[in-house]
Amino acid sequence: MKMRFPFSLTASMTRHILIQGLKGVKKYPLVLMLEPLFKCNLRCAGCGRIREYAEHMTEMLSVEECLDSMNECGAPIVSICGGEPLIYPEIGELVRRTVFEQKRHVYLCTNGLMLKKHIEDGTFRPTSRFFINVHLDGMEKNHDASTSRTGVWSAAVEGLKAAVEAGFQVCTNTTLYRESSVDEITELCTMLESLGVCSMMLAPAYSYETFDAESQGSLFLVREETQARFRELEKRLKGKRLATTPLYMDFLTGRRQLPCAAWANPTRNVCGWKGPCYLLTDAHYATYRELLEKTAWETLGPTGSDPRCTNCMMHCGFEPGAVLVSTKDPIQGLRTMLWQLGIF
What is the pLDDT of residues 144-159, one digit of tens each? Predict the structure, then answer.
């Protein structure tokens, strides 16, 4: 039996949730989505950032601005994304200070192109508080097609292997599009597990507003299609080390509803605190508090009236929703704990 996540992460998150509950805080962050830059070395077909922030590609947050945002927000976990964070000139310092000074857990989300070089150069050092999260949307042919460049998949896998061999905790993130077949995703997860990946996140893609109607129809799944795809994947991937919590999987397969808790995964980028969520942009706020207070949360998610949320089943809103449900429901809380312990 092996825990899905290090005990330090579980303890840190549990302590954070208990403290917020004792304080009577209703909305609080779990994971800070930190985007120190938008610049990327790829132009992936399903990426909304390179379209939405085309005019901000040369801008970056300083390390101090990043650390100040962590302190302001208070989330125990920081997901450093972008853009491609391995392009960020001070990425080594940012990770080191976040992990060792601020004692937070860090997920570094990367396309993997530069990963092997950073591992060989000693940019990072292994610790239970640091995860390298490699994005892979399928096997070689389809992944390279989605990134519009040959050799991307191979480079990412080589970087992943180097990180595992160097003793790092490596996980993966796979986004499902219309062309993502159950057979291919099953093959990918089987291969990744054989390479020593500690966990694999699967989630449906989101149809960003920046895509035209034709692209939205050809690239992205609607809710019923997502549910059917995940029902099949759940059967095929039984026993695999998925990072998808049981409650979120219930939601993805259509067995239950979950609240969207997008406020628990706030996004900070060079333009400010992105609102209302990681996927939608109506405004950028100067502070996290302003984001919380000025966003009409009741209009968002499955119970809201915003049409942009109709087909959204993304983990950035519903995984924190699952966590919060499990804190209030003893049976679901026990189920989540057993899952984390690797019992099922």
Answer: 888 889 999 999 999 9
